[in-house]
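Model it.
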Amino acid sequence: MQNLSQWAARNRWIWSLIGVVVLWGILSLITDRLSLHSLSGVATSASFLVLAALGQMFVVTTGRGNIDLSIASVIAMSAFASLILSSGSDGNLALGLAAVLAIGLVVGTVNAVLVVLFRIPAMIATLATGYVLATGTLLANRHIAGAVANPALTFVAAGKVAGVPVMLLVALAAVILSSLVLGRLAYGRSLSAVGQNLRAARLAGVRTGRVVATTFLISSLLAAIDGALLSAYVGGAFLEMGTPYLLQSVGAVVIGGSLIFGGGSTAVGTFFGCVLLVLIVTTMQIAGLPPGTQDIVQGTVVIAVLALAGGSAWRRNTRRGTGAAVAARSA
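Modeled.
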C-alpha cells in the first residue's frame, strides 16, 4: 500500500485520469447521448484547451504564484489576425502564420520583460498586457467582415485521419514534447529548480531570469497558435473567443497534478485535466445548467483542488519544521 501511495505521489496525473474514467462511466450510464462520435467531439474540444494549458503549465512551474492572464487576449487577437491576413487562401497561409507567431513572440517578450526586468508580479503584468491586446482586438473586429477560414488550417483543426481528429494528434504531440522538455532536458530540470527555490537555483548557477522569461514566450506562442486553429475550427472570430480558456487553462494545470506553488508539473496530467474539465462542462450542458452556473461549478472545482494542494503543502512544511526543530534540540 505504501508503494502504491508513493507511486501515486510521483505520478500525480493518475488522479485526473481516474476522474475522466469515473465521470465518463457515470455519463454513459445516465444518458444515451454518449458514443464514440461524442467522445471524438470531447477529445477535439479538449485538444484546443491542451495547447493553452500547456503554456500555462510552464508559467505556473516557475512558482511564486505566476499565472499568465494574457492567454485569453492572445487567443482572440491571433484568431482575428489569422482570418484577416490569410483571407481563406492557402497562398496566404505563410503570412497569416507569421503574424500569429509574431503576436506570440511580442506578447511573450513584453510579459517576460515586465516580470523579469521590472519585477512586476506576473498576474498584474500579464493582465495589463491582456488589456492592451483587447484594444487591438476591438480594432481588428472592424475588418473581420467577410473573412474566411484557411482550408489548410481548417483541416488541422477539424479534419480527421483514419477517424482520429487531427487536432487530437497535434495536442498529443505537444504533450509528448512538453514531457520530454520537463523530464529529459536540462531546461526542464532548471525550470523545476527555479520553481522550488529561486534563490537556491540562482546560487547553483541557473540563469533564473532566462528560464522564467522563456516560459512566458512558450505560453504566448502556444496561445497564439491555439487562436489561429480555433478560428479555423469555428470558421470565424469574436471578441470573447479566448475568455473560456483563461480559467480552464489554470484549472486543467491544477487538476492535472501540477503544483500551483511551482517546482513540479506534469504534461500528461495537464492533458487529462483538460479532458476532465471538458467532460464536466459536457455534463452541465446535458443537465441544462446556464453558462453562469457552469462557470461557478468550474471555479468551485478549481478552488477545491487548490485548497487540497495548499493543505498538503502546509502539512509538508509543518513536518519539515517539526523535524528541523527536533534535530536542533538533539544537537
